[in-house]
């Protein structure tokens, strides 16, 4: 009987760490942190602690997003592209 109890206890202790790792699964839902900075509302979007986008809502104006430009902490506005494409009309029928 003692051997059975020891075996049962050993098996419970062996599988306990596996259960804790399964609880730390990455989630697909972003964590949103909202804060006020002057007259702006800033929402930070994170997935597993990784900041991937920032939404800035001014008190008077349109909201805009800042997204990561590269691997560092450089962010650019998503509504203002770097490359401007000319829209000239050359021929008209």
UniProtKB/TrEMBL annotation:
Signal peptide: 1-22
Pfam families: DUF2782
The keyword Signal is assigned to this record: yes
Domain of life: Bacteria
Alphabetic keyword roster: Signal
Name used for this protein in its record: DUF2782 domain-containing protein
Gene source species: Metapseudomonas boanensis
């Amino acid at each position: 009987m003692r051997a059975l109890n020891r075996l049962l206890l050993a098996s419970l202790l062996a599988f306990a760490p596996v259960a804790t790792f399964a609880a730390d699964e990455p989630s697909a839902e972003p964590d949103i942190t909202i804060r006020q900075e002057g007259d702006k509302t800033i929402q930070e979007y994170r997935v597993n602690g990784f900041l991937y986008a920032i939404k800035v809502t001014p008190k008077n104006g349109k909201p805009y997003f800042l997204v990561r430009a590269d691997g560092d902490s450089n962010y650019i506005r998503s509504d203002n592209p770097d490359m401007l494409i000319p829209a000239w009309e050359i021929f008209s029928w």
